[in-house]
Design brief:
By secondary structure, the chain is mainly α. The protein folds into two domains: 118 residues, Farnesyl Diphosphate Synthase; 193 residues, Farnesyl Diphosphate Synthase, CATH 1.10.600. The chain contains 17 helices and two strands. Strands 1-2 form a two-stranded antiparallel ribbon. Helix 2 crosses helix 5, helix 4 runs antiparallel to helix 5 and helix 9 crosses helix 10. The chain is globular and about 55 Å long.
């Protein structure tokens, strides 16, 4: 239901998004039946496609041409998909989007090479854009995404990390790819530098807000709503903002510490989830997400008024209140 509400916000982009969906399927096609099955397994499980949406909306500020924009939108979504396949190996995740992960359906080796294959297809696709600047921005973004993944591994199970550790992680893990989606959509459409810079910053701030809400939902949603066990971040050792805000309670801190890096039963997992859900950590994390949301909206106020700004504003508000 929530996903339907989001899609309604950009329903005017439906024909373009259907075209991009077909291009995504074609992009992961190969002569290997195994690679096809593994790649389509995640693609057909669905997703919000928020990165292609931002590419298209950013294109509204210049010379909007779907045949150019899709050459950026497709690789950005493929990069996101590849990172999810690799993430599930690192986090040993069994379920994503309500379906078995690639590593669970096949094994870690198949998952790692499937992720590599999807990433390679993304790079192949972006070569259709003849712009060194576009390639430079995408390359730097990819480097930062990889750095973010390594930082996440290093920070696992580290309950005493500070807020700066968390923010530098989600910046690289999520915000920069959304920021690049906005910037690259603007650049390939020939927008002016000032507009592209505002769109880049909008993408960054909305990406930070998006990830914080994602981390909150890991505790406030049910297993069914998430399509994976609630509290998965904690189980996998990923210390997110709700935990960092809640840990100042000595009793809660001791409980978190004693349950960290353990094979929790469902009953123990629910106790951790319930403790965080009832702590001040949720509201404090929501307040931080709201701060980033307001910064994103401020960037939109500098842009020319039109359908692009209108839809981006609606999506921004939805992200701040979303429940999936």
């Amino acid at each position: 239901m929530e996903k339907m509400k989001l899609k309604l916000l950009y329903s005017d982009l439906k024909p373009e998004l259907e075209m991009i969906e077909k291009e995504l399927e074609q992009a992961v096609d190969s002569e290997s039946l195994l690679l096809n099955d593994a790649s389509l397994h995640l693609l057909q499980a669905g997703g919000k496609r928020i990165r292609p949406v931002f590419v298209l909306l950013a294109g509204k500020f210049g010379n909007y041409d779907i045949n150019v924009l899709k050459k950026v939108a497709v690789p950005l979504e493929l990069i996101h998909m590849a990172s999810l396949v690799h993430d599930d190996v690192i986090d040993d995740s069994e379920i994503r989007r309500g379906q078995p992960t690639v590593k669970s359906q096949w094994n870690n080796s198949v998952a790692m090479y499937t992720g590599d294959f999807i990433l390679a297809r993304a790079l192949e696709h972006i070569t259709k854009i003849e712009s060194p600047r576009v390639h430079e921005i995408l390359s730097k973004t990819l480097i930062e995404v990889c750095r973010g993944e390594i930082i996440q591994i290093q920070d696992k199970y580290r309950l005493d990390q500070n807020l700066r550790d968390y923010f530098r992680r989600i910046k690289r893990k999520t915000a920069l790819l959304i920021s690049s989606s906005c910037e690259l959509g603007a650049l390939v459409s020939g927008t002016d530098e000032k507009t592209a810079a505002h769109l880049r910053r909008f993408g960054y701030f909305i990406g930070m807000s998006f990830q914080i809400i994602d981390d909150i939902l890991d505790f406030t949603s049910t297993d069914e709503e998430l399509g994976k066990p609630a509290g998965s971040d904690f189980i996998q050792g990923n210390i997110t903002l709700p935990i960092l805000c809640a840990r100042k309670d000595p009793e809660l801190y001791a409980m978190l510490k004693s349950n960290l890096n353990k094979n929790l039963s469902d009953e123990e997992r629910f106790k951790v989830v319930e403790a965080i859900r009832n702590s001040s950590g949720i509201e404090e994390a929501k307040a931080m997400s709201e701060r980033y949301l307001q910064k994103a909206l401020r960037e939109l106020s500098f842009l020319p008024k039109g359908q692009g700004v209108k839809t981006m504003r609606k999506i921004a508000f939805f992200i701040g209140k979303r429940k999936f």
